[in-house]
Design brief:
The chain is an alpha/beta fold and 238 residues long. It folds into two domains: 105 residues, Ribonuclease Z/Hydroxyacylglutathione hydrolase-like (Metallo-beta-lactamase, Chain A, 4-Layer Sandwich), CATH 3.60.15.10; 100 residues, no CATH class. It is 24% helix and 25% strand. The chain has eight helices and twelve strands. The strands form two sheets. The chain has a seven-stranded mixed sheet with strand order 6-7-8-9-10-11-12, covered by helices on one side.
Length: 238
């Protein structure tokens, strides 16, 4: 499950509450001071259930999200119970407006095109001290957005959607009906920037069919030979 821990001056925050959130918190060694959500798809917010009275029973844990996402959480159970019982405290961010969820970390929300059945979708430009990371775990296509190359040059690292490696991954299914940028497309787009700068390109959010899970596969070796990376559990980026 794709999630990111971001450390500030004395606390840390969690970006996206995956179903594996309890294990991710245990790996971090302490509760996050805040949670920031990208959108309302199963792998990105359903871990909030662990904050309820049946499990952690957290007390007003700040959860940052878009206005549409906040409305969805307030209006639908079981998320609405988290709000009613003060397990979480919703804070709304606005696309294109910088906010500071914890001391030492600033985040710029960037609206991206994606399947928005329940909420809109955002990626984040994250600044921690002097290090800038672009985090976009889910997007329909880079062409539909149009900002990746220019934004990549403004960051030291980009962590991006690698749901599918290429168009041959799902057998007989028509993958044109499943919009995600393919890793091969992302590599082609970012290769000139990787070669010209010290930019780290890290592929995350892999579908279970993605051959990048296999470190001996040709796709994995292709990514590594392109000076890009495949995200690892517990990987430090700074």
């Amino acid at each position: 499950m794709a999630a990111l821990a971001v450390h500030g001056e004395s606390e840390w925050l969690l970006i996206d509450a995956t179903p594996d959130m309890p294990e991710q918190i245990r790996n971090a060694g302490s509760m996050p001071a805040a949670i920031v959500l990208t959108h309302a798809h199963i792998g990105h917010y359903t871990g909030l259930t662990h904050l309820g009275r049946e499990v952690m029973s957290s007390d007003r844990l700040p959860v940052w999200c878009s206005a549409r996402m906040a409305d969805y959480l307030r209006s639908n159970g079981p998320w609405s119970q988290l709000v009613a019982l003060n397990n979480i405290e919703l804070h709304e961010f606005e696309s294109g407006v910088l906010f500071n969820p914890i001391d030492g970390v600033s985040i710029l929300p960037l609206k991206v095109p994606h399947r928005d059945e329940y909420s809109d979708t955002h990626g984040f430009s994250i600044t921690n001290k002097d290090y800038r990371t672009l985090y976009i775990p889910d997007i329909d296509s880079w062409d539909a957005w149009g900002h990746l190359p220019d934004l990549a040059r403004e960051h030291q690292a980009v962590i991006i959607d690698a749901t599918f490696y290429d168009d041959h991954e799902l057998g007989n299914r028509d993958m044109s009906q499943i919009p995600h940028p393919r890793v091969t497309q992302s590599l082609e787009l970012l290769a000139p920037i990787i070669n010209d700068t010290q930019l780290r390109v890290i592929f995350s959010h892999l579908n279970h069919t993605n051959p990048l899970w296999d470190k001996k596969s040709k796709p994995y070796l292709n990514v590594i030979s392109s000076k890009a990376e495949v995200a690892k559990v517990g990987q430090l980026i700074y």
